[in-house]
Amino acid sequence: VKKPVTNAKPVAANEGSKVTTTKSGNATLVEHAKKSSKSLYVSSKLSVDDVEYKVTAIAAKAFVKATKATTVTLPSTITQIKANAFEKSKITKVKLNINKGAKFSVAKKAFKNSKVKNVEVFVTSRVTKKQKTEIKSALVKAGIEAKNIKFIVK
C-alpha cells in the first residue's frame, strides 16, 4: 500500500487538476483542471500516484484555467482559502460547504483581483450562530460584501 508523500511542487491528480500534497494525506488545489463547463465542483478527495489525498486548501490562482466557469462549489473538507485564490478567474459565485465545528480560514486577499461577488454558505443545522458569524466576518475581511453572503441550511 502506497503512503502519502509531501510534494512541494504541483503534481497532477486523477482529474487533471494540479495539487501539492503532504505526508499527512492532505492536498492543496493549485490548479483546477481546464474545463469548459460554467459550474465547477472541487472534489473532497483526489488521487496522486494511486494515493488518495483529502483536499483541504485552495491556492492562489487555482481557477485561472477554468475560463468558462462562473460558479464553483467547494467541499466541506476545505479549511483554508489562500490569498488571490480566485485571481484572474471568471468565477462570480462561490458555494461553500461547512460542517459544525469545522476550522475554516480565508486569507484577507482571497478574493483580490477576482470577479467573485456572491458566496453561498451551505451549513448543517448544527452549525452555531457563533460559527456563522466567524465565517461571515472572515469572508467580509477577504473582500466579500456582507449583503452578498447567504447562509443556507442543508
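the 2nd protein, sequnce then structure:
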Amino acid sequence: IIMVHPADEDNLKEEDSRSVDLKESTDVRSFLSYPAVAVTDPSPENAIRSVLNLYFSSNKDVVSEVMKKLLPFDPVALTSEIVLFHTHSEHAREPVILLGTHSQGILFSETDQKTYAFFILVSPKDQTSIHLQALAKIARIAREIQPQAQKDAEI
C-alpha cells in the first residue's frame, strides 16, 4: 500500500490522483483514488477531514458536504479493525475511494474497538450501481488487507 503522511502532500504529483478501478484486481493501489493517508490525529472528525482535504483540496464544498452527511459517525464495520464511511455527493463527478490509517487506532463509535484503517467512498448521486459495486469491492479488499493492517499497527 502506498502511504502518504499529510505533511507530504506537496510532494505528490498530479498522476497520484486516479480514477477508481472496480475490476477484479485486488491490488489496493489500483483501487484507491489517492494513496493511502497515514493520519496522526486521534480525533475521528479530524482524521476523516484530513483524508478528504488531501483529495478534494481544490473543492472544499465536497469536504463540507461529505462531513455533514457522515456526522454523526456511524461507520460500517468491515473487519474488527477496518471500517467504511460512504455517501453520495452532488459535487462528485466520479466515485472516489480513499483510505486512511492510524497506527494507534481511532475510536469512531461508542464501542471500545479501535479502528486502524478506514475507507471513505464518495459517489455521484446518479451512480448508485457503481456505488454498490465499489462497496462490494471495498469489503473484499478489507478482508484481504486485515492481516497487513494488524501487522502495521504493531510496528
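The radius of gyration is 14 Å. The CA atoms of residues 21 and 30 lie 6 Å apart.
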